[in-house]
Amino acid sequence: MSDLRVGRISALNMYPIYHHLEQAALPGVTFTDGLPAALNAAVLAGDLDVSAMSSIAYARNADRLRLIPVGCIACQGAVDSIRLLTPVPLAAVTRVAVTPHSASSVTLLRILLGPDVAFRLLDGDPAEAIAQGDAVLLIADEALAAHRDAIAMHSIDLGDVWQQRTGLPMVFGVWAAREDAARTREAEVARLSRAIDDARQAYLADPDAVAVAATARFPFPAPYIRDYLARLTYVFGADERAGLARFLEMARAAHELDDVPVLHPVAA
To answer: Is the pTM of this model over 0.85?
Structure first.
């Protein structure tokens, strides 16, 4: 049988999980690197069997996917790597150039800004778009670098805004498998699920070691990486499930989602 094809988000925010998955050297698993939008598309096209993927992409295609509730990527408050860089305050934003690499963050921004703000796809230098008066939505390492370099007068953390408005975690990504892969390769998907849980626990047992290892791949010092990763959570617990349900309900109200899928309770 061919290898189980697994998407690997090539950004610092998921490094703690993939670092330990790589060390586990699971037999019969092949990883493909990419940012969330590319991995979403690859799962839906049948080019990947399993991946961490944007939570809104999962919800829009829940009839074709099976949620793997062993983990997620979420924050409770400021996250640093989902940022709106803007020359004007949030309430004055009228135009946004949005990253092509994320689906959940774009939907979150639509929820937060409402229907009247014009969105376009970012197709050039973010600093140039800002100089022309647009706000710019960036994610992952690009957002971290832009915030560090202060490319705009205002750098707004969407995780922080979400938490202030709802009091709930913001779940940007979930793990999901194509329904056919989950059905025909149940044992392999279950083994991967256990490995994801083991990776999360290994990270929590020694976060400093992960931060040091990450410096070989990412252009940030270990103390910064440690503090950044501490803002994230990878467990899909009751609070995260409630946060995801609220996000999807608000996405439907904003006409970003047709139907909210049932999120089954997480086993204790």
So the answer is: yes
